[in-house]
Amino acid sequence: MLFGGCGCGPDAGWLDSYGGMCAGGAGFITAMLGMMAAKRQKAEVLMPGKKPPVVERLAVRILTDNIVINFVPGEKREGLTIERGGSARVDADAKPRHAPMAEWGLAMHAQSFADGAERNVLVDFGYTPETLLNNMKIYGFDPACIDAMVLSHGHYDHFGGMAGFLAATKGQLKSATPFFVGGEDAFCLRRNATGSFGAIDRKAIREADLALMMAEGPAIVAGHGFTTGRIAQTSFEKPLLPTREIVGIFDGFGCYPDAMPPHKNTGEYIADDFDHEIATNYIVGDRGLVVLTSCSHRGVINAVKQAQAVSGCDKVFAVIGGFHIVPPLGDDYINATIEAFREINPAYIVPAHCSGDRFFDLARQAFGEKVIHSAVGMRFVFEA
Question: Taking residues 301-319, what's their average pLDDT?
């Protein structure tokens, strides 16, 4: 193991094993600035021998998800408090005007505490800015508190709310707030069976005075969390690949050809391998990893294993996010995923967004109440 914390000790051999995942073994230190005229800030990378951050408390609020669940009480479990905030909090004489909104997409607020310091990270932006901004207001999330942002990958249901959010909060965000993506290919144009499905507005990031961080390798996020870097496909998983991508700049959108691998620079749409997708992670005391998978196009088990590999911590406290196990993936695939989760043995599994109803049903049968349904407004508070 590379790092201490959560019962994990150092092991110098980790460097060699991780080097095999990235060309030349250099991927683990690749967290450089994007090619844009913005305030520059270098990401703090996870270097060999350096311990990852460990927090005492982590609260994950679901800001955007597929459903809203009202009138279900909160509860306390071992190391976890679940707050279910489906309804807006209003004064006694207030009239109903605003309610939490659900949509196809995902956005999460990670609030962490360590050594008397608080950090706030926005992970993804959902499908529309209207939903994100509405729910932020209802749950009292002040954009001025954001210390970093992470965009997991280049699909509309995760970045669609970004440009509108940045425009609406102009002047409120901290100058040069780090904005993490998993590589230049996050910006490539994407297309699915129905048409365009990806065009991140790089100009919006620049005009918001953010520091674009190309985190192809694992990078420290706001001093408390860390990204996986690019996720190696080491498990049985063969996840769905629903989009195609094209290299190039088109009407100001797209990815720079000279920053992309030559084999992808064909001038045509090619299969999207989601090599740029990243997960966001925290270590909560001795309880272990909390992995925010976002969408798991590289496989949810692969995402967890990558978080374990880059942190050196095998113990998993919780896995939260989209698992992308939907038709035509069937029961055989789902059961294989359940068995892989059984081996990892997380204390809690929180399927969200694109996880699929069938996965939830079978996982609940297998693991009981350790599987918790996600919904807009829910807040998961993990204690060391």
Answer: 96
Contact call for residues 225 and 211 (beta carbons, < 8 A): no
Q: Angle 42-44-47 (CA atoms, 0-180°, nearest 5)?
A: 130
When the pLDDT of each residue in the chain is averaged and rounded to a whole number, the result is 87
Measuring CA to CA, which residue among 55, 79, 52, 112 is closest to residue 284? 55
Region class of 25: left (phi > 0), else alpha (psi between -120 and 50), else beta = left
Single out the residue of 123, 140, 142 nearest to residue 64, CA to CA.
123
- For the stretch 239-277, pLDDT in tens is 889 999 999 999 999 999 999 999 999 999 999 999 999
User: How many angstroms separate the CA atoms of 62 and 108, rounded?
Assistant: 5
Q: How far apart are CA 368 and CA 344, in angstroms?
A: 16
Q: Does domain 32-89+99-383 have CATH number 3.30.70.1230?
A: no
DSSP state of 104: S
Burial 17-29 (b: 16+ CB within 10 A, else e): ebeebbeeeebbb
172-205 pLDDT tens trace = 999 999 999 999 999 999 999 999 998 999 999 9
Give me Rg for the CA atoms of the chain.
Answer: 20
CB-CB contact of 196 with 23 (8 Å): no
What pLDDT is stored for residue 92 in this prediction? 62
Domain ranges of the chain: 32-89+99-383
